[in-house]
Amino acid sequence: MAALDTTRFASTGSFGLVGRIGAFFVSAVNAAVEWNDARVTRNALTGLSDRELEDIGLCRGDIDAIAQGRR
């Protein structure tokens, strides 16, 4: 699982064009990291059998919601 610390960007108080460009790249990287985490989670849960999913309280219909962090 990847983690990206963006608190330093928010606390530096960047202004102007450079700050907006930096914020854009931070949000793009965050979106890519979140997409990859969801993809890895979805693949891991899809690889489980129905019995294994039942053991952890899930069904096949829950996989997308879990991967997207909605549950």
Concise synopsis of the structure shown:
The chain is rod-shaped. It has helices spanning 7-11, 16-46, 50-55, 63-67.
List the total number of helices. 4
Strand content: under 5%
Q: Bin the helical content.
A: 55-70%
Shape: rod-shaped
Largest sheet: none
Q: Count the strands?
A: 0
What is the average per-residue confidence, as pLDDT, rounded to a whole number?
86
Question: What report would you give on this structure?
Answer:
It comes from Ruegeria atlantica. Residues 31-64 form the YjiS-like domain. This is DUF1127 domain-containing protein. The mean pLDDT is 86. The chain has a domain at 33-71. The chain contains four helices and no strands. The chain is mainly alpha-helical and 71 residues long.
Q: What distinguishing features does this structure have?
A:
71 residues, mainly alpha, rod-shaped
Summarize the topology.
Blueprint: H1 7-11, H2 16-46, H3 50-55, H4 63-67
